[in-house]
Amino acid sequence: MNFTVLTIFPEMFDAYWAHGILRRALKQGQVTAHTVNIRDYATDRHKMTDDRPYGGGAGMVMKPEPLVAAIEAADEKSSQAVKVLLTPQGRPFDQGLAEELSHEKGLIFVCGRYEGVDERICENHIDLEISIGDYVLTGGEVAAMAVIDAVTRLIPGALGNEDSAGQDSFSRDLLEHGHFTRPPEFNGESVPEVLLSGNHSAIAKWRLEYSLVKTVLKRPDLLRDRSLEQSELDILHKWQKEIESIIHSKS
User: Which end of the chain has the lower number of beta carbons within 10 A, N or C?
Assistant: First the structure.
């Protein structure tokens, strides 16, 4: 996987490439990554990448000439890469989209600034628009980092444990179960006994039930949109009976 980030602030990524999972993936060769300074493709003496919007209004708009030149230069070096614009109007980013993108040869991220980019860029030079949420950032750089991180985790060999990505929240449309580590007791609260039992079957069952509890309480919408396995239905039916029993005892 090759990541190319088009930005007017390439220095923002220097520390990002140098830490965590991405650093390891770069070192091991699972991914390559670099930035392109859009200002390098501006032709005026002031290296301008923005201008006032036609029709008036607040803010500035990124000019098409330097941005298109930067996109075309990146595309020449990574011709099979998907050209991605980070924008609030894009497709909502989720684990499913991260999985799709992890199978691509490369990704070229166009990081807008100011009020956004000239609309002709969106129409003619972008393959996919992505939004990481219904809010406005000052630029696409943070959004690009979020997408790169999520995609890198899914590339084989990028994580130390190959099972980790499959157990993450949203990988099965469930929130992940709770995690515990040493010490076994902290501030009067103990680690669940089942996790200390060594019984892997019991642990797996506990983790599934914990995941369902968290999902029902925090993100019930995830369960409405997915089919349920029999083991999950059994757990929900058990809760239903217990809830009905409590209601019946109070009525």
Answer: C
Q: Catalytic: which of 75, 104, 129, 168?
A: 168
Those residues with Cβ within 8 angstroms of residue 158's Cβ, 6 or more apart along the chain or in another chain = 21, 24, 25, 28, 30, 31, 152
**162 in catalytic set:** no
- Give residue 167's pLDDT: 52
- Is residue 48 a contact partner of residue 42, using CB atoms and an 8 Å limit? yes
Q: Which of 24, 39, 65, 88 is catalytic?
A: 88
Please, what is the angle between helix 230-250 and helix 200-218, to 10°? 60
Would you call 75 a catalytic residue per the annotation? Answer: no
Tens digits of residue pLDDT in 151-188: 999 999 998 665 555 555 565 789 999 999 999 999 99
- pLDDT higher than threshold 80 for residue 114: yes
Mean pLDDT of 44-69: 95
Q: Determine the 3-state secondary structure of 10 from DSSP.
A: helix
Q: Which domains does the chain have, with CATH numbers?
A: 2-152 (3.40.1280.10), 185-250 (1.10.1270.20)
Active site residue 168: yes
Q: Is 225 a catalytic residue?
A: no
